[in-house]
Design brief:
Layout: H1 2-12, E1 15-17, E2 33-35, E3 39-43, H2 52-55, E4 67-69, E5 74-75, H3 76-82, H4 88-91, E6 96-101, E7 110-115, E8 118-119, E9 121-126, E10 129-132, E11 144-147, E12 159-167, E13 192-193, E14 197-202, E15 205-207, E16 212-216, E17 226-236, E18 243-252, E19 258-268, E20 273-282, E21 299-307, E22 344-353, E23 358-362, E24 368-372, E25 375-377, E26 379-384, H5 394-406, E27 411-415, H6 421-430, E28 433-437, H7 450-462, E29 468-470, H8 480-487, E30 543-548, H9 557-563, H10 566-574, H11 593-603, H12 609-633, E31 643-648, H13 671-679, E32 683-687, E33 693-698, E34 705-715, E35 720-730, E36 734-740, E37 751-760, E38 784-786, E39 793-795, E40 798-808, E41 815-816, E42 828-830, E43 845-849, E44 853-854, E45 867-875, E46 881-889, E47 899-901, E48 906-908, E49 913-920, E50 927-932, E51 935-941
Parallel strand pairs: 26-27, 26-31, 27-28, 28-29, 30-31, 38-49
Antiparallel strand pairs: 1-3, 2-14, 3-4, 5-13, 6-12, 7-11, 7-14, 8-13, 9-10, 9-12, 15-17, 16-17, 17-20, 18-19, 18-21, 21-22, 23-24, 24-25, 32-33, 33-36, 34-35, 34-37, 37-40, 39-40, 41-42, 43-45, 44-45, 45-49, 46-48, 46-50, 47-49, 50-51
InterPro entries: Beta-gal/glucu_dom_sf, EBDG/EBM, Galactose-bd-like_sf, GH, Ig-like_fold, Ig-like_GH2, Ig_GlcNase
Keywords: Glycosidase, Hydrolase, Signal
Organism: Beauveria bassiana D1-5
Length: 942
């Protein structure tokens, strides 16, 4: 089998790739750059002639029997999936050769070959000559630029052949893109060309690397002029003569109007490299904001290098300059005035950027606090994972980003998976912050060699869109000085954090705050119940929690059917301690024992797979909601250690997994997604399980005024247990406790708590009423509301801002054994008892599907939802309809994905009506399936 051959290949040898010649030249003019578009590949095992220099000559080998892939970048497994030899739905390289057309350029023209990412080392050959060996071209992030001008074909009719001999990756030795304990090793260990190899034609002066852009936007931002600094390294590729160059930078506003043009004249000695720098003042700047706070206008910077002309224009000022060479040295003075725009184009580059100011500092507790445009920002995000086979899909990432924003989050964290440059551009356009940094090292104490680490850092240096740099491993601390020297040349609106030197509980990355200790997935453990400084309460809400969570993320049945056998699905609920392949057999997370211990104790042993899954979704929803609500409630605390940021572990999976996600591999949102979304509303009302307090949360920059919270508690018969009203006022970017829920001490069976936050539209004074009602009257509610982060529904001259329902058992909250915490979980000594839920009577829910409203526009990134429907749910019963979920399905009954629901997994009071909206990208949905804990499954056609 080919798959077995791949194992042999990766363990015992290397291989080669070869691609068909392109019908037209890839590049034909200065400044043009193109990726090698396709590859042929095979294993070197059985290759009769292993003279790789000879194989790299045009026509030197017959590749008709090799594997072929129409992709510019892929690992071995990624290529086999792309060309159809393996199917993604059934599954769960090694070396390459490519031809490209091009001729040796005339004098003072050059070809540059750039490797942006080969995993993890390779020998490069071009037209029979070796360009680099594996000792130099080593490390998955080791992007190098090679001047191959003298190696390209001399005549136009002659083809060029590039051979890349990729050596098998060894995760425990090589600097590769691995996954630690996230998932199993891919069969090819990630070996291959995972980023584009590009060919670029330039004149005698080339830009070595992309533009670096820094923004100085004084506060208050937008009210004062901003200064944009554009910087690029210029290299004279002529080794025998000096070159006089005219450089021009043009900055344009988001509508394309030119803001300003700057010119520089620079003389470069033979072979010299120096930085050229331009400064442009932007008046009345249009400010970039995170999505929840405003718009994302993007400016454009374009830099051109010209040679051989007399120069034109005016303006001067110092350019960059100084010494340096391939390692990227810089500094010093530059050329004088004049120049720019005359002569022949030698090279060109363009980049977009936003005008913003992002800072990070340590507060009094040694925790990281970010600010954006002068406003404190609580970072709320998740840990992003690349695909297991390092396949990049820009449209898929745009959907992931939309999901992140829909959940109310504002950031993603990349732990050693820097992905493709397109990721940062998509995040910039959508208003999403990116935290990047090293991954955990497999061998403690081993640090990157300079030749391997510098390109990786330089990749992030050039990504001015990245908003922070973080470490994930204490063993990297001794390497920080060299990292700081390189990042001293980073765009100055990036922020850099490292572990604090002593003091505090060091975070898994961004310096600080909370150790990466994960509470057992046993329920609402986010609200810390002890010391105000958080010490000894691992996983609780304080500081910057850069890598923590309950580890939940159980897929729903439609997704499980795609990657589990019938026996696997039986094991989920019949064998709670069994190791499962789609967890991770290389770590403590091979079984679901900790998770299942809580589920069994709190809800009772499951009676079927369907019963297990709904109890799992209850567990997942409750866990993520509690964690995000706790962090949001304690965000600006003045009396205890504030919770400055949270990165949930994890956002998504590299493969179909049974845990660690907020939506599954097939893009199906479930309990962990909607628990996060509920807790992360712009305005929200939350319940503290420990103190039984009610918290008013405001994450906006502009919402303020009077608010009313209505508190209702009913039992499983629908009878009123408690009714209270609390009045307060809200201020932007704050949280405050507004009251306490009374009457819960005598609870003997499960009760349901509903919090509703209202905004009084007529601004009348609100009278505080904390009376507790304990009678047996049946409560009715015929109000209609839409629950949506972005939509506010008005009812009786009051706007419903947030609606939130909890289920509470005797004792209300689990009891945690803090003293016996391990690095990955905190034991539970007593679980809250939800087993009385089995007595809940069946509820009858009517479902009404509204007509579809269509939207025009792009189907990618921010404007991708093509149509919306309103789904109306009405509980016709006298008992609560508990944990009702909705799912779109196609004609075959399969999940119709991706999808955005305004809310899901909702609980309806007796006789209550809710209107939910659903947005979909595709036209395949034919019906909506509705089910609940005590609601029978029903399907309603569109």
């Amino acid at each position: 089998m080919l798959r077995s051959a791949a194992f042999v290949l990766l363990l015992a040898g290397s291989g080669v790739w070869a691609a068909a010649a392109t019908p037209e030249p890839l590049i034909s003019g200065a400044g043009q750059k193109a990726a090698i578009p396709r590859w042929n590949f095979r294993s070197t095992a059985g290759l009769a002639d292993k003279d790789f220099a000879k194989l790299s000559q045009a026509g030197g080998v017959d590749t008709s029997s090799w594997h072929h892939v129409e992709a510019s970048r892929c690992t071995l497994m990624g290529c086999l999936l792309e060309n159809g030899e393996y199917k993604d739905s059934d599954l769960w390289f090694s070396n390459n050769l490519e031809h490209f057309n091009g001729t040796r350029p005339p004098r003072r023209r050059h070809f540059l070959l750039e490797t942006n990412g080969i995993s993890s080392k390779a020998d490069l050959y071009l037209n029979g000559r070796q360009v680099a060996d594996a000792a130099f071209q080593a490390g998955a992030y080791a992007g190098h630029i090679y001047d191959v001008t003298e190696l390209v074909a001399a005549k136009e009719e002659e083809a060029n052949a590039l051979l890349v001999r990729v050596h098998p990756t060894q995760y425990l030795y090589d600097f590769a893109v691995g996954f630690v304990d996230w998932n199993p090793y891919p069969p090819d260990n990630g070996t291959g060309i995972w980023r584009d190899i590009t060919v670029k034609q330039t004149g005698p002066v080339a830009m070595m690397g992309p533009l670096s852009i820094a923004v100085d936007a004084p506060l208050p931002i937008g009210e004062r002029d901003a200064t944009v600094t554009v910087r690029v390294r210029a290299t004279n590729l002529e080794n025998t003569t000096s070159v006089e160059m005219a450089a021009r930078a043009v900055v344009s506003d988001p509508l394309g109007a030119v803001v300003g043009t700057q010119n520089r004249s620079v003389v470069l000695a033979a072979g010299e490299s120096r930085y050229v720098e331009f400064k442009q003042v932007v008046r009345n700047p249009k400010v970039w904001w995170p999505k929840a706070w405003g718009a994302q206008p993007l400016y454009t910077a374009k830099v051109d290098f010209f040679v051989g002309g007399g120069g034109s224009g005016s303006g001067g000022g110092g350019g960059g300059g100084g010494g340096g060479g391939g390692g990227g040295g810089g500094g010093g003075g530059g050329g004088g005035g004049g120049g720019g725009g005359g002569g022949v184009l030698s090279d060109t580059a363009t980049s977009t950027f936003g005008i913003r100011t992002v800072t990070a500092a340590l507060n009094a507790h040694n925790d990281t606090l970010f600010t954006v445009n002068g406003h404190p920002l609580q970072v709320l995000g998740g840990g992003y994972s690349a695909d297991m086979f390092l396949r990049w899909d820009a449209a898929r990432f745009a959907l992931i980003a939309r999901y992140v924003l829909d959940m109310g989050q504002n950031a993603i964290r990349l732990e050693g998976k820097m992905e493709q440059p397109e990721l940062y551009a998509v995040a910039d356009r959508l208003g999403l912050l990116v935290l990047v940094g090293w991954g955990v090292q497999p061998r403690p104490g081993r640090r990157p060699a300079a030749g391997v680490g510098r390109p990786r850092l330089r990749h992030c240096q050039r990504e001015h869109r990245a908003r922070g740099w973080c470490l994930a491993d204490a063993s990297q601390r001794d390497w920080v000085s060299g990292r700081q020297r390189l990042l001293a040349r980073r765009p100055r609106d990036q922020t850099v954090r490292r572990r604090a030197e002593g003091g505090g509980l060091a975070g898994a990355d961004c310096g600080v705050g909370v150790e990466a200790r994960i509470p057992g997935a046993s329920g609402p453990v986010g609200h810390e119940d002890g010391r105000a400084d958080g010490k000894g309460r691992y996983g609780a809400a304080f500081g910057f929690g850069s890598e923590l969570g309950a580890g939940v993320g159980t897929p729903e049945l439609g997704s499980l059917n795609k990657f589990l056998t019938a026996a696997d699905k039986e094991d989920l609920w019949r064998a709670p301690d069994k190791g499962l392949y789609h967890m991770n057999k290389r770590s403590q997370f091979y079984t679901r024992s900790i998770y299942n211990r809580g589920l069994w104790a709190r809800f009772g042993a499951p009676t079927s797979l369907e019963d297990y899954l709904i109890k799992a979704q209850l567990t997942d929803y409750e866990a993520t909601r509690a964690q995000y609500e706790a962090y949001s409630a304690l965000w600006r605390s003045a009396t205890r250690r504030p919770a400055t940021g949270l990165v949930y572990w994890m956002l998504n999976n590299a493969w179909p997994s049974l845990h660690w996600n907020q939506f599954d591999h097939y893009m199906r949102p479930a309990g962990s997604y909607y628990g996060t979304k509920t807790a992360s509303r712009v305005e929200h009302v939350a319940f503290d399980y420990v103190s039984r307090g009610v918290w008013l949360i405001n994450r906006s920059l502009d919402r303020r005024g009077a608010r009313r919270v209505e508190v209702d508690v009913v039992d499983m018969k629908g009878r009123i247990v408690v009714r209270q009203t609390m009045a307060s006022a809200t201020e932007p970017n704050t949280s405050r406790k507004v009251g306490t829920v009374e009457g819960l001490d005598g609870v003997e069976e499960v009760v349901f708590l509903r919090l509703r936050l209202y905004r009084d539209n007529n601004n009348n004074n609100i009278i505080n009423n904390n009376n507790t009602m304990t009678n047996n009257n049946t409560m009715t509610n015929n109000n209609t509301m839409t629950n949506n982060n972005n939509n506010i529904t008005t009812t009786n001259n009051r706007a419903v801002v947030s609606r939130n329902v909890y289920w509470l058992g005797p004792g209300v909250v689990d009891v945690l054994d803090w003293k016996n915490s391990t690095w990955y979980h905190t034991p539970v000594t007593k679980y809250v008892d939800y087993t009385s839920l089995r007595k809940l009577e069946t509820a009858s829910v009517d479902v009404e599907v509204g007509s579809r409203t269509c939207r025009s526009g792009s189907t990618t990134e921010g404007g991708g939802v093509r149509g919306r429907r309103v789904i109306t749910l009405q509980n016709k019963s006298g008992v609560p309809a508990f944990f009702v979920s909705l799912n779109l399905v196609d004609a075959a009954g399969e999940d119709a994905l991706p999808v955005l629901w305004s809310d899901n997994y909702v609980t309806l009071w007796p006789n209550e009506t809710l209107k939910l909206t659903v947005g979909q990208w595709h036209d395949g949905a034919e019906a909506v399936e509705v089910k609940g804990f005590n609601v029978k499954t029903a399907s309603v056609s569109f």
